[in-house]
Amino acid sequence: MTKTQRQHRIAQILSSSTVTSQVQLVGLLHAEGISATQATVSRDLVELGVVKVRNDGGARTLALPSAAIALRAQPEHLRRVLSEWVVDVTSAGPMVVVKTPPGCAHVVASALDRGVIEGTLGTVAGDDTIFVVVDERMGGAAMAKKLRATAGLEAASTSTATRARAPHTPTKKGR
């Protein structure tokens, strides 16, 4: 595992769990099969800008800096971006295809990548098209429906990317 991967996992753990010490964090990493010493984790925490804060119960916990938390798109921001820039949403299996005007796909992909909508694993953006990889537990059709609703697209555009195919006619060699 690379340093970047380890630090990414540390950030995920701190975002989803209450961690009160570096020793506890090392233990959580080891439980996931990630080998790291307390000294290594300490350096990672410094590089990530992690701070100790008091939680609601008064206990001191490790937390990511507020700047990192602020980077997550707020639901209202995502709704505005989708309603302004998304022109069509279709699905095919675990993928969702989002269409935008030319040159706008990166803006929408960035908002989706910030994690406000549960079930998106990542995006790939071109000029006017975004492929959204969806968690298989949700499925592409459900995510497409959710994105269409967030974008305010009419129900008339609820088509999926299943296109009619010509029947397969076997051919014989030598004909």
What's the gist of this structure?
The chain is an alpha+beta fold and 175 residues long. Helices cover 41% and strands 17% of the residues.
Explain this structure to me?
- With 175 residues, this protein is α+β, with helices and mostly antiparallel strands.
- The protein folds into 2 domains: 3-70, Arc Repressor Mutant, subunit A (Orthogonal Bundle), CATH 1.10.10; 75-157, Gyrase A, domain 2 (2-Layer Sandwich).
- The chain is 41% helix and 17% strand.
- The chain is built from 7 helices and 6 strands; from the N terminus they run αααββααββαββα.
- It has helices spanning 3-16, 22-31, 38-48, 66-70, 75-85, 105-113, 140-151, and strands at 51-54, 60-63, 88-92, 95-99, 120-125, 129-134.
- The strands form 2 sheets. The protein has a 4-stranded antiparallel beta sheet, covered by helices on one side. Strands 1-2 form a two-stranded antiparallel ribbon.
- The longest helix has 14 residues, at 3-16.
- The radius of gyration is 22 Å and the shape is elongated.
Task: List the main descriptive attributes of the protein structure presented here.
Arc Repressor Mutant, subunit A; Gyrase A, domain 2; 175 residues; 7 helices; four-stranded antiparallel beta sheet; 2 domains; two-stranded antiparallel ribbon
